[in-house]
Amino acid sequence: MNACESILGLSPYQGGKPIEELARELGLTKISKLASNENPLGISKSVKKAINDSLVNINRYPDGNCFELKKAISEKHNVSSGMISLGNGSNELLELIARVFVSKKTDEVIFSQYAFVVYPLVTQALGATAVVSPANNFEHDLGSMQSLISKQTKLIYIANPNNPTGTLLSDDEVYSFLKQTPTNIPVVLDQAYFEYLKIDDSAIKWLNEFENLIITRTFSKAYGLAGLRVGYSISSPLIVDYINRVREPFNVNHTAQVAAIAALKDDKYLSDSVTMNSNGYNQLIKGFKDLNLKFIPSYANFIAVEFKDAMKIYNDLLKEGVIVRPVEMNGYLRISIGTSSENEHLLEALKTLL
């Protein structure tokens, strides 16, 4: 039995090590998971109530068109419901978009070095050609990416803020890139961490000007719904139609839809999440500086930190009950921002190990 040639060289996506797995392996009771960029605040009371209330209808299939959730998102961003696609996390949408526009080996997909690991995975799984733009001091080099556009370019991914580096492109830089990109090439602006930025939502307005722009966002980060897997994209109705042709029916479950609607309405929870993240960031960078550790300034809810032997530190931290994340950057670990006590657990462990 032979699998498709394009997937033979793939390694399965590895998420952050689960707390339960580390507890089983080492018998630890105090564990801080700072590996998966999750919201450490938990869920709000209103979201918890919405989830509990939704359970009475679990025996029914969910609304396959996500009418109410699309309505809530459209009101939040002042866009038409016909511009919204829903996914089992924004991760699914990143894959669906690729399936819409990429179909053969000669098709090229452009993304940056040190960008989200799903971009190369999706490209390789489809048997297409990855065109990787060298990073500039760990940041997207949009000039380089522009120079790589060819007749074979079918899709471009830009993560902003970027994962795993936490770097941020300015609105002017992204807008200029869009202005210079041929309109027949779709550009995905992956904004999974947008809510942490505290800036104007300029990208949504660009949709009126650029029919090739696709914005993806998620409820997994600042909204605290990582376990329910719900994300969305905003694009032209034509692209929405294309995505609907390849997505699975009922790809967003009923409870996820209900929880996401409640989360969108809870402005205080979102504000508290952003504040906790900001405070945690300041706590961690002070600790890293005290330990003489170099790190990449971040605009998201994680920080990439440099170590002489990153994998040794990763494994040693596990023994201390702290889970962080190895990444595709030699000598770096990505550390999610947790609660004050989780951050302190990490810093105390590093003091012991360094």
Structural commentary:
This protein has two domains: 5-42 and 268-353, Aspartate Aminotransferase, domain 1 (Alpha-Beta Complex), CATH 3.90.1150; 45-266, Aspartate Aminotransferase, domain 2. It has 354 residues and is of the alpha/beta class. A seven-stranded mixed sheet has the order 2-8-7-6-5-3-4, with helices on both faces. The chain has a four-stranded antiparallel sheet with strand order 9-10-13-12, with helices on one face. A two-stranded parallel sheet has the order 1-11. The model has no long low-confidence stretch (mean pLDDT 94). It is globular. It contains 14 helices and 13 strands. The N and C termini lie far apart (49 Å). Helix content is 41%, strand content 15%. The protein has helices spanning 5-8, 19-26, 45-54, 67-77, 90-101, 118-125, 142-147, 171-180, 202-206, 237-246, 254-265, 267-290, 310-319, 340-353; strands at residues 32-33, 84-87, 108-112, 129-133, 153-159, 187-190, 213-218, 231-234, 295-296, 302-306, 322-323, 325-326, 332-336.
